[in-house]
Amino acid sequence: MKPFAYARPGDVTEAVRSAAAEAASVYLAGGTNLVDHLKLGVARPELVIDVRTLTSREITDLADGGLRIGAAVTNSELAADRRVRERYPVLAQALLAGATGQLRNMATAGGNPLQRTRCTYFQDVTTACNKREPGSGCSAVGGATRQHAILGTPAALPDPTAPETCIATHPSDMAVALAVLEATVHVQGPGGARAVPFTELHRPPGDDPSRDTVLQHGELITAIDLPAPPAGARSAYRKVRDRASYAFALVSVAALVTVADGRATDVRIALGGVAHKPWRATRAEEILRGAEPTEHAVRAAMEAELAAAQPQPGVDGGNGFKIPLATRTVVAAVRDLVREA
Ligand SMILES: Cc1cc2nc3c(=O)[nH]c(=O)nc-3n(C[C@H](O)[C@H](O)[C@H](O)COP(=O)(O)OP(=O)(O)OC[C@H]3O[C@@H](n4cnc5c(N)ncnc54)[C@H](O)[C@@H]3O)c2cc1C
Fold first, then answer.
1. Which of 93, 115, 221, when mutated, tests ligand 1's pocket best, judged by the most ligand atoms within 8 Å of its CB?
2. Whose CA is nearest to atom 36 of ligand 1?
3. What is the pLDDT of residues 166-221, one digit of tens each?
4. I need a labelling partner for 149 at 20 to 30 A (CA). Which of 8, 102, 202, 272 fits?
5. In what helix (H) or strand (E) does residue 39 lie, and over which residues does it extend?
6. Closest among 269, 273, 187 to 233, alpha carbons compared
7. Share of the chain above pLDDT 70, in %
8. Is 47 in the pocket of ligand 1 (CB under 6 A)?
9. How far is the centre of ligand 1, averaged over its atoms, from the C-alpha of 267 (Å)?
10. What is the pTM of this model?
11. Ligand 1 in contact with 33 (CB < 6 A)?
12. Cα–ligand 1 centroid distance for 32 (angstroms)
């Protein structure tokens, strides 16, 4: 491991000032992702700034019926909160589908959405990776692609030597749930405080796959707000993976559905495991809004959504299976919610 300086500032202002003064600095929260990266040589900072005790560890009620989640709240605390389980089951289920009890006891609400891809090439410093080392190329293209993206990728058969090529997926389960809940992320940075809609926090690889989010260097997540869930809405999370536990999603689905008089008045669908960011299925949502949410209608809407999917061939058989898998998982999730409603 490369040596680094460790700082434990007294408050958020001091933490942000320290980060702004050192370009090669990172924040440390629960450490369940960052410490692995320090050991693997994926992260090579000069300064690690411990923020674990600086932000709130409370979940508080908001006047509009929503909740404010302090960035230091652990994944276990969030999943166990009665208000979260009752009003936002999709979030509690997503959290409990992630990692293990021990990891969730350490992992934080601020750190979880900012965890980095589990792409094996990103984590292996002996291979080329545009995300880890901009401009070095992408070893995933033409490699093992089972865990990789089918949506939002630069081209059907991306050029592995191009600096913008990246077919990594975002690994967080929690982030997929927050995408349908239309959460807001509160950030404090060198330029002051700002609020970022959760659906705009993560970015597609674009021309710089090394950047996972729109956050600038030194910006610290202080809290995440959940708006009140729509009246009568049902929500759920489904995760499909190679093992029943302790595995990242091949495909996951967060769904929120409101039904009135047999019609879907509000449908929100987000997919995990298929793109560089939690993928809001806006095309499918548009088709289903106001329609009778039958299995046939949901399947047709997902086929429209996935018409642009670009499955990748791979030495492990590739990831074309994610197209029917995503469709079936959404159909099953929505079917169960409509039955409940
Ligand atoms: C074996 C294993 C299995 C796992 N399985 C799953 C799974 O199935 N699903 C899943 O979703 N996750 C899984 N995880 C990942 C785990 O959920 C994340 O590592 C954890 O949520 C990250 O939170 P943390 O507080 O530990 O973040 P850290 O590791 O401390 O930080 C992660 C990143 O966020 C940044 N950061 C942290 N806090 C802030 C903040 N407040 N503001 C700005 N930047 C910040 C850090 O600089 C770092 O870049 C797994 C992890 C392991 C090790």
1. 115
2. 111
3. 999 999 999 999 999 999 999 999 999 999 999 999 999 999 999 999 999 999 99
4. 102
5. helix 34-40
6. 269
7. 100
8. no
9. 29
10. 0.98
11. yes
12. 5
- Quote the tokens at residue 31: 């450490």
What's at 210, amino acid-wise? S
Residue type, 111: G
CA of 160 to the centre of ligand 1 (A): 28
Ligand 1 mean position, distance from CA 264 (Å): 35
Neighbours of 108 (CB within 10 A): 26
pLDDT band at 318 (very low <50, low <70, confident <90, very high): very high
Point out the ligand 1 atom lying closest to the alpha carbon of residue 114. Answer: 34
Hey, whose CA ends up nearest to atom 52 of ligand 1? 99
CA of 340 to the centre of ligand 1 (A): 33
List the Cα angle 116/122/124 in 5-degree steps. Answer: 125
Going edge to edge, which strands form the sheet with 5-7?
Answer: 5-7, 47-50, 25-28
CA distance 52 to 326: 36
Cα 117–Cα 279–Cα 32 angle in degrees, nearest 5 = 30
> 314 CB under 6 A from ligand 1?
no
**Residue 42 confidence (pLDDT):** 98
Whole-number Cα distances in Å, 33 to 42, 70, 112, 180, 268: 11, 19, 9, 24, 29
Tell me which residue has tokens 């019609």.
263
Q: Are 335 and 328 in contact (CB under 8 A)?
A: no
Strand order in the sheet with 192-197: 59-61, 67-70, 220-226, 184-189, 192-197
Q: Using one digit for the tens of pLDDT, what is the confidence trace for 98-113?
A: 999 999 999 999 999 9
Using the mean position of ligand 1's atoms as its centre, give its distance from the Cα of residue 55 in Å: 16
Ligand 1, pocket-test mutation among 27, 37, 178, 241, most atoms within 8 A of CB: 27
Question: How far is ligand 1, taken at its centre, from the CA of residue 202, in Å?
Answer: 15
Helix (H, G, I), strand (E, B) or coil at 281: coil
168 closest CA partner among 185, 189, 186, 148 = 148
Amino acid at 153: T
Strands 220-226, 234-240: pairing is: unpaired
